[in-house]
Design brief:
By secondary structure, this protein is α/β, with parallel strands linked by helices. It is about 25% helix and about 15% strand. The chain has a ten-stranded parallel sheet with strand order 1-2-3-4-5-6-7-8-9-10, with no helix packed on it. The longest helix has 8 residues.
């Protein structure tokens, strides 16, 4: 009943920006259906709905996908963590690709029983005609390598310039990392965040991800690989990111891996990145000693840092 009442905000004649924070309630599928009526707000262009932990389910996700019909909507954020949306709900949410004016979309789907099929459906967001900024947060699901392969198809989104993929704890291995490296071929991509903590990417996956250096327009990269069995070989591979032609801001999260002094020495080569002005290296709980620390001190010689 409360959600139905809030949906009447659609009748506010001049409303263009709305945020509703309803976390930790029991909105359910019926409430989500009611809130989908916000699509009828004639001037609404920016909408944020916080519905974490609300028993929304796949029926509620289907209802929320009707927001694609909002005539003026260009920026949409849906917080749906811990709602048992599942693959069916993810399939429904992929219909947001049909929103004619939508250019910025953020979907929070942590802990929702989304697997490879759901990831495949979400990759269809690449077909959104105006989309230039996409954040998909899928932590604590079971996307796996197949889902990672599907999500790599986002490289075909013609206008996408900013992408964040949250795949923490999703059973992604080296094959999935290899697939995600294909994002280097996204024609307009300049900002990328890949959160792959608590998977099993390993050195092979790190080697594959180093190919992101070939993304011609990429200037900002966040790569989180905490707890992924990355060792010195993986660190050596990641040092090749120094060759990315446009990269000026780099964050590498390598906590809780097995990077030693040799890996630290390799990472010090990032000093040779010609345009790099901002560098963040996270190396907590590795095997870096004094020699590695001395090597990292050479980053002082980076010309633009």
């Amino acid at each position: 009943d409360g959600a139905r009442a809030l949906s009447l905000l659609k009748d506010a004649p001049s409303l263009h920006t709305l945020a509703l924070v309803l976390n930790d309630n029991n909105v359910g599928g019926d409430g989500a259906r009611a809130l989908s009526l916000l699509k009828d707000a004639p001037s609404l262009h920016t909408l944020t709905l916080w519905l974490n932990n609300n028993n929304v389910g796949d029926d509620g996700a289907r209802a929320l996908s009707l927001l694609k019909d909002a005539p003026s909507l260009h920026t949409l954020t849906l917080w749906l963590n811990n709602n048992n949306v599942g693959d069916d709900g993810a399939r429904a949410l992929s219909l947001l690709k049909d929103a004619p004016s939508l250019h910025t979309l953020t979907l929070w789907l942590d802990t929702n029983n989304v697997g490879g099929d759901g990831a495949r459906a979400l990759s269809l967001l690449k077909d959104a005609p105006s989309l230039h900024t996409l954040e998909l947060w899928l932590d604590n699901n079971n996307v796996g390598d197949d889902g990672a392969r599907a999500l790599s198809l986002l490289k075909d989104a013609p206008s996408l310039h900013t992408l964040a993929l949250g795949l923490n704890n999703n059973n992604v291995g080296g094959d999935g990392a290899r697939a995600l490296s294909l994002l280097k071929d996204a024609p307009s991509l300049h900002t990328l965040a890949l959160v792959l903590d608590n998977n099993d990417v390993g050195d092979d996956g790190a080697r594959a991800l180093s190919l992101l250096k070939d993304a011609p327009s990429l200037h900002t990269l966040e790569l989180w690989l905490d707890n992924n069995n990355v060792g010195d070989d993986g660190a050596r591979a990641l040092s090749l990111l120094k060759d990315a032609p446009s990269l000026h801001t780099l964050t590498l999260g390598l906590n809780n891996n097995n990077v030693g002094d040799d890996g630290a020495r390799a990472l010090s080569l990032l000093k040779d990145a010609p345009s790099l002005h901002t560098l963040t290296l996270w190396l907590n709980n590795n095997n870096v000693g004094g020699d590695g620390a001395r090597a990292l001190s050479l980053l002082k010689d980076a010309p633009s840092l």
